[in-house]
Design brief:
Radius of gyration: 19 Å
Shape: globular
Number of helices: 8
Helix content: 40-55%
Order of helices and strands: HHEEHEHHEHEHEEH
CATH topology: Glycerol-3-phosphate (1)-acyltransferase
Strand content: 5-15%
Strand order of the largest sheet: 1-7-6-2-5-3-4
Number of strands: 7
CATH class: Alpha Beta
Structural class: alpha/beta
Amino acid sequence: MTPLERPTSWLWSVYEHVAMVLGLSALAVVCLSWTPLAIALYPVLPTPLGRWVGRQAIMRGFRLYVGVLRTVCACRFDLSAIDALRDQGPMVIAANHPSLLDAVLITSRLPNAVCFMKADIMDNPLFGAGARMARYVRNDHLIGAIQSCRRELQQGAQIVIFPEGTRTLGYPGNVLNPLTRSTALIATRANVPVQTLIVEFSSPYLGKGWPLWRKPSLPLTCHIRLGRRFEAPRDARLFTQELEAYFRAELSGTPTPVAASVAA
């Protein structure tokens, strides 16, 4: 057995520290390489072209980053299910949120994704310029955000949203925060379906409360699978309750049928 196959050895622990530094550094390099170009291009490119360039840059940049994690950081990602959504038209893609990495993994596979993002991330110098270039939507003014999402959906985009509103507080991944109504409100106003994604990590790395410089437990694995697709909801409150019940059942390993009464 090689040292890299012995998770309890001191050499493996050293490798986990090195992999953490390499992984975080790679993300910083990818984002900072694009930021000056995004700042320069944002005010001069026509909106449709700027939107396309911004989303392509994020997808390809994050795909490169995921490749680095796979190659040198002992990360194993099963993301193939997401590819089936690429050409399926406008929809709200709703996922549970156990880690900072899941947004990166999802957007690395979708060429026309629009993230519904926290305002403080949009204002972050590392991510903000690229997010604005791609016309991502900030969540600090809900009515305006819903209108922006509706416009993007009408133009063929797919809205990526984490209905919990923040990373899941707790581990393992069978826990869930209470859901906000944002997902239901967007889907109701835009009259589009909601496709769920179930995100499962092998450890709570970069989850809620995980310090940025705390090393991961490698190998880190993540499996993202397609969940149920709901038709455009009619009642935002009832749909939010049912969506939360659905996620809790899926994450606990005891899926239950979804009542048809809240779906169009």
